[in-house]
Amino acid sequence: MAQSLLFKVKRSEPELISPSKPTPHEIKRLSDIDDQQSLRFHVPLIQFYNYNPIMEGKDPVVVIRKALAKTLVFYYPLAGRLREGPGRKLMVDCTGEGVLFIEADADVTLKQFGDALHPPFPCLGELIYDVPGSSDVLNTPLLLIQVLSLSLTHVCMRAHTLFMILFSYVLFIFA
Predict the structure, then answer these.
(1) What is the CATH number of the domain that holds 142?
(2) DSSP class of residue 12?
(3) What is the SS3 assignment for 117?
(4) What DSSP state is assigned to residue 135?
(5) Domains in the chain: how many in total?
(6) Transmembrane segments in this chain: where (predicted)?
(7) CA 161, CA 86: separation in Å to the nearest integer?
């Protein structure tokens, strides 16, 4: 059913969301484990959310944009850029430049996708915007967030980040 589904997606221009408060400007070198060539790739993630009555009268895009800026204060390296030093050693330059953020609207409901909400998702290419140059590893934003509002107040959120950065942070925080 979802394979023959026709719908339109309207997107805003990608913007950078920076931390809401000043953050340290420093260099964080990656460990030898995190610095492996085989870990230099992006991890895509897509999540669908049903309508939540608590959000009545609130724009999910505005809420997520503000929450992201506040969150980046505590996770400020994600607002930086990955740089390559001598010997191809990777480091995060904590510049506070921000993460990519895209707002989008689609004239389709979550129900119209039917049972296709698991990989392989047939309409992924139509829903997700691949920002030119964002798939590079070096000198680009470490995180891309796209908030897609579907008809009937459902929200789809897409993110991609570098595997090594995400994995390092999870280990650092929970280890």
Answers:
(1) 3.30.559.10
(2) P
(3) coil
(4) T
(5) 1
(6) none
(7) 24
